[in-house]
TrEMBL record:
Residues 2-187 form the UmuC domain. This is Y-family DNA polymerase. It comes from Alteromonas ponticola. Keywords: DNA damage, DNA repair, SOS mutagenesis, SOS response. InterPro entries: DNA/RNA_pol_sf, DNA_pol_Y-fam_little_finger, DNA_polymerase-Y, DUF4113, Rev_trsase/Diguanyl_cyclase, UmuC. Belongs to the DNA polymerase type-Y family. Gene3D superfamilies: 3.30.70.270, 3.40.1170.60. Transmembrane segments: none annotated.
Amino acid sequence: MYALVDAVSMYASAEKVFDPAIRNRPVLVLSNNDGCVIAACPIAKRLGLKNFVPYFQIEKQARAVNAVVRSSNYALYADLSSRMMDVCELACSEAHIYSIDECFLKFDFNDAEQNWFAFGEALRRKIWKEVRLPVGVGFGPTPTLAKAANHAAKKVQGFNGVAVLSAAEERNRVLSMMAATDVWGVGKRLGRRFDDMGIKTAQDLASHCPLNIGKQFSVVVENTVRELNGELRLSWHDVRPDKKELYSTRSFGERITEKEQLRYALTMHAQIACKKLRKQNSGTKSVVLFAASSPHDTKGYYKETVFKQFPFATADTRVIVAAVSKAVDKIYKTGVDFYKCGVGLLDLTEQFQSQGDLFSSSPDDTQLMRCLDAINTKFGRNALQFAAVGAEQKFHMKQAFLSPRYTTRWSDIPRIKC
């Protein structure tokens, strides 16, 4: 049996953990630079406030319902996520963290030996007691059915935070109430093709012949159909394979006009991307660097991109930073108000399978990078970083509604007076 534990509106719920005064109010969390709504609590959704819309479009509506607006507080969310995952990992011998708010659990004992509803309720109460995050728990004989059960636990009437899809009758009932695009791994593009075939619901998809679906689409979609019918086809590796490309991009809180500030920003993104690269034990054979103004600027739109290939796969931040330093002269243009920049690592390969170069040796220092990552893991992000990032950065994110970092900053730790 598999279970998927998923926090309800993770970012918005996290904002309520250390601020009980807003627990019964609608809460919205905004994206980088306070641009779009990326999380709305259930109360906000019931009042018509939606995710993934520019904040300025719903600002008046949010004020009218006395909504609480917060800037993204990633340090707080990551810490609360870690605490939630710790509780989940204690619930079984095998757990797989899928994202910041989702965790798969695998159980080896027989269905008949366990009351899954009671187990799910106990796990929800435990997470609420320890972390104060509301979660939904879905159980199924495959990861795909566990994901569908979690959807039912949170969104299908009749379930109260826990759903179990072990019996065929219950499974068919729930799948018939789910759209095909609600199935894990089925996006809008695939959903449109399904719609043309008359596949409207998840049950319609499950009823199709897996082999025929595989021939028309791919073995991945075939496995999805098989999993909807209770046949285990996915492993943890299939659930979250290594990424083939890695990017770090962000718009600026204030426009950049100076070359050095642009250099600092690109170097910062190089650091972030390389850390992600080493985390999945990969190397990159090429890098793309870009910077652009806003398409809405009166001066006209400007964007410049530089592509750099390496003779060997590298995971050394120093190599990427050196490429940034050379590229800035080509990217920068006097008079442009830069709005956004980023670094992309392409042609990723597993480090132990990387091909060397006959005529040049790799300058990578694996031990140095391992030491750098260990220090930043122990003492906090960017505790140790490259001087090329600069001492005075003028491109910090706009975070006008940022809440305190209650668990990761000494000055923000809550004080209780008795």
